[in-house]
Amino acid sequence: MSDTSLSGAAPPAASATPVAQAIKGGRKLTTVYVYEAPVRLWHWVNALSIVVLCITGYFIGSPFPTLSGEASAHYLMGTIRFVHFAAGYILAVGFLGRIIWAFFGNKYSRELFTFPFWRKSFWRGFFVEIKWYAFLKPRPLKFVGHNPLAQVFMFFVMVLGLAFMIVTGFALYSEGTGPGSWQDKLFGWVLPLLGGSMQVHTLHHLGMWVIILFVIIHVYSVIREDIMSRQTMVSAITNGHRTFRDDDPE
Amino acid sequence: MALETFYEVMRRQGITRRSFLKYCSLTAAALGLGPEFAPQIAEAMETKPRTPVLWLHGLECTCCSESFIRSAHPLAKDVVLSMISLDYDDTLMASAGHQAEAILDEVMEKYKGNYILAVEGNPPLNEDGMYCIIGGKPFVDQLKKVAKDAKAIISWGSCASYGCVQAARPNPTRATPVHEVIFDKPIIKVPGCPPIAEVMTGVITYMLTFDRLPDLDRQGRPKMFYSQRIHDKCYRRPHFDAGQYVESFDDEGARKGYCLYKVGCKGPTTYNACSTVRWNDGVSFPIQAGHGCIGCSEDGFWDKGSWYARLADLKGSGFGVEANADQVGLIAAGAVGAGVAVHAAVSALKRAQHKNTDNGADNSATGGEK
Prior knowledge:
The complex is a heterodimer of chains A (250) and B (370).
Chain A lengths: L15 H9 L6 E3 L3 H25 L14 H29 L15 H14 L14 H30 L4 H6 L2 H4 L3 H32 L5 H6 L1 E3 L7
Antiparallel strand pairs in A: 1-2
Chain B lengths: L5 H7 L4 H14 L6 H11 L5 E5 L5 H6 L5 H14 E2 L7 H14 L4 E6 L12 E2 L2 E2 H10 L1 E7 H6 L24 E4 L6 H14 L12 H4 L10 H6 L9 H5 L17 H4 L47 H42 L4
Parallel strand pairs in B: 1-2, 1-3, 3-6, 6-7
Antiparallel strand pairs in B: 4-5
Helix pairs in contact in B: 2-3
């Protein structure tokens, strides 16, 4: 897990003087390589797929105004659905690849899939972050990977939420590919389990909104953290290196 | 009652052999079997002793029976039906009262383990089943009694298969589908409100002639009739793919026969054979008549919201009277967006405030680094 303190060795009480000295002797910025190339690639492919899926998905549920002329002259809904399915496949393959990468990547690559509720330090960081977001704490902690609050969101929306969308998505897709198709064999059981096709459509739709909420919060907090926290955000997921703005412990 | 074959019964009913063979090939076609199966059906019907069908009625509206007796095949109507009414169907048979109940006992005794039980409607379980009394006893008792020695059970219609209207929220009588009362028998669900007549006679004919259950899907429905959605075989499907929809029931699109998706057609979520077999001798089906499918053969279709809306409503989940996923989502997104905006504003203020004090501190510590 991401550790809360980078220079954990230094006792917090003695921090004031060495920092002042460090600053006096020129600014030293600690940089850690956090997000390896596959993780970055996945992030942006995933983000793009989600945008495409949300837009096309919305227009499958609420189609454009009717087109005039012969049906043979258009294939609008067909195209929208095709793009949705293609993006869905890309998202699903990316998700699988991301899971596989968690076995090979650095320790931060596994962070997404863990929710270390048994760790005291996790909950400490979690509540400090909540206080930071509630303006009750003037300064947040430092984190190499995700902060615990972000990790909770990531785990429940990006791992469990995306898994739910992939499973329900393929279950709905199997309605078109028909009984006996691999989609039906792997995911068809979901339809009766969740109360039928109509219900699964609605849940899949609600899932979209949960992800949209996540995206709003994610983009906002990333920008905010990039400006106000003690480490970089946007550049970290672009070039993989996270830079810290100070060398204070804690 | 000697063990006569189907063919003998048919001949007794005045059916010619020519008509009989026509029926066999039509049935083979209806069941999705190749032409080589027609002689097989004929042979089975000529040689096999007929299997009695006992048809019980629980909480129901008799729409299944009404549909069944309108089967397009005259032979299915005359023969299969008369064979059934020979045994037990309290709506259609001539006898009544104790005499009728005696027939039930007699068939159960004589064909023990060898008759098919067809159930129309379902048993209510509240108040010890007192909401549906047959022959002085709760229907659930009769159902359990007859099911005990049945070879297989057919759940006719959405009532027996899923509960249908009497099981809709709040289900005051606790109407319960057959498969939640009987656990030890194979159950074939033939949902629909009502099911299509040819589907009903097709399922019975298949079971009687081949002496086995049709292939069933995950939900226990015969694959031959319920493996595709109405949408998949709908003749208006090209308009769906093209993006041509009826926007309201009196518009140009409605007159031109565009897709009914936007006015809430449940074809895309409903498994049935309406768009292929159609109704009333293949005359039409709801979508052809210009009205969207209401999804009557789907589990819990009464509780999934308006028949004219694309999304199931969420009132059962505590989201107000008519809220759907989009409304809930939009409101949530709006609330979160507003929250984010306020949070961003406060953050900016705090930062500005903080910077001022920070700068003061910095100045003293670093000698005016800026």
